[in-house]
Automatic annotation (TrEMBL):
Organism: Brevibacillus centrosporus
InterPro entries: Gfo/Idh/MocA-like_OxRdtase_N, Gfo/Idh/MocA_oxidrdct_glycsds, GFO_IDH_MocA-like_dom, NAD(P)-bd_dom_sf
Protein name according to UniProt: Predicted dehydrogenase
Tagged with keyword Transferase: no
Every Gfo/Idh/MocA-like oxidoreductase N-terminal domain range: 6-126
Keywords, alphabetical: Oxidoreductase
Pfam families, alphabetized: GFO_IDH_MocA, GFO_IDH_MocA_C3
GO molecular function, a single term: nucleotide binding
GFO/IDH/MocA-like oxidoreductase domain mapped to chain residues: 144-281
Keyword Magnesium annotated: no
Coiled coil: none
Length: 382
């Protein structure tokens, strides 16, 4: 089967840019895909960061510090952009108005005003596919949770818990970086960095919080600069949000956890849904394990544990007896994006990457969470 090339430029040659490039190099891992990405250009303010790309991808023909020059290239169809949050509004709007499809990192703007600028550009170019990076729901267990709920197995929802936990900032001697400064990361702190992962599935299932009570923590107030001097660490390390969600004729609680300081968690994404007829939970802590419970009035209440096979949204060469991991989730997310670029609404499977509208709602929620924490009150969302 001949494949349609999607020619990419990468803006931001850091960790996640390399993850995308690695997924491109593994594209032969996928079976029966019509789309195939090809990296033809890279852009970074530090040209040395681009050298890793040029040494591994002979398809790259353009290397630049200036993203504007990259956007002027007719041979580029799409852009992956991974830059600090304060640059999102400027770069994302320019990418979209240049007619390039965009997969951008969350949170799609440093604040609500910046996000509104991105949405305005999207409204001007409905022909451009714009999506927000969120790979973790592409774990087979995440997709199983989604299917379990959509099939009506839960019945009346009792409560939902979702979160993303890691301990990368547990060490107070870790040097400060751009995510610890309000000027580059924004006031959302860990919410802007981790929140789209947590909310991707709940929002896709239609569970929009109507209010929020938030508790935010800045646990490490100073961190060392490169020269060893201590400077203020300005952004929130941990966030716990308790929300009310209205579904059909009733209201249920949903708790959302976004934590950079969660001892014992290297990188844990989870979701747990409890219902009157069925319950389901999955965590990347145990990526092969899905727990479900189906309950009938007067019947037994017993969790069933399923050992998950390698069953991804897009088929791969991997046998189903093997384990699914983070790199596989990245590959699946990119397969979904390229599929949508090539096939639009006729993509091969229905689960898309996070949408701009879902990203926009996170801004509404996180802005309300900041107000809730500051005032110590429940804040209603518009």
């Amino acid at each position: 089967m001949s494949k349609k090339k999607v020619r990419f430029g990468v803006i931001g040659c850091g960790l996640m840019g390399k993850e995308f490039a690695s997924a491109v190099s593994r594209w032969c891992h996928l079976l029966d895909t019509e789309a195939e990405p090809q990296i033809v250009a890279v852009c970074d303010a530090n040209l040395a960061a681009a050298m890793w790309f040029t040494s591994h991808f002979p398809s790259i023909r353009h290397v630049t510090k200036d993203y504007r020059g990259l956007l002027s290239l007719a041979e580029i169809d799409a852009i992956y952009c991974a830059v600090p949050h304060h640059l999102h509004a400027e770069l994302y709007t320019a990418i979209i108005r240049a007619g390039k499809h965009l997969l951008g990192e969350k949170p799609f703007g440093i604040d609500r005003l910046a996000n509104e600028q991105v949405l305005e550009a999207i409204s001007e170019r409905p022909d451009v596919v714009v999506r927000c990076s969120s790979e973790l729901p592409f774990f087979p267990g995440g997709l199983k949770v989604y299917d379990f709920v959509r099939k009506g197995n839960v019945g009346k929802v009792i409560e939902v818990e979702a979160g993303f936990l890691h301990s990368s900032d547990l060490n107070p001697q870790k040097p400060i970086n751009w995510k610890r400064r309000i000027a580059t990361n924004g006031e959302y702190g860990c919410m802007g960095d981790l929140g789209m992962h947590v909310l991707h599935l709940p929002l896709r299932l239609g569970w929009k919080p109507r209010n929020v009570r938030a508790i935010l923590s800045n646990l490490v107030e100073q961190r060392p600069e490169a020269d060893g001097s201590l400077v203020p660490c300005e952004t929130w390390d941990n966030a716990t949000l308790l929300c009310e969600v209205k579904a059909d004729s009733h209201v249920f609680p949903m708790s959302l956890s976004m934590k950079r300081i969660a001892p014992g968690h290297n990188n844990t994404w989870f979701i747990r849904v409890l219902g009157m007829e069925g319950s389901v939970e999955f965590s990347t802590k145990n990526p092969k394990e899905l727990r479900t419970m189906l309950y009938r009035p007067g019947g037994e209440q017993a969790w069933r544990t399923e050992d998950l096979p390698y069953a991804s949204a897009y088929p791969t060469i991997t046998g189903n007896i093997f384990e699914f991991g983070f790199s596989d989730a990245i590959l699946q997310m990119w397969a979904a994006f390229c599929d949508e670029v090539v096939n639009g609404p006729n993509m091969h499977q229905p689960f898309t990457c996070a949408t701009p509208q879902e990203a926009a709602f996170t801004h509404q929620l996180f802005s309300a969470a900041l107000e809730s924490h500051r005032k110590g009150v429940i804040v209603n969302l518009e």
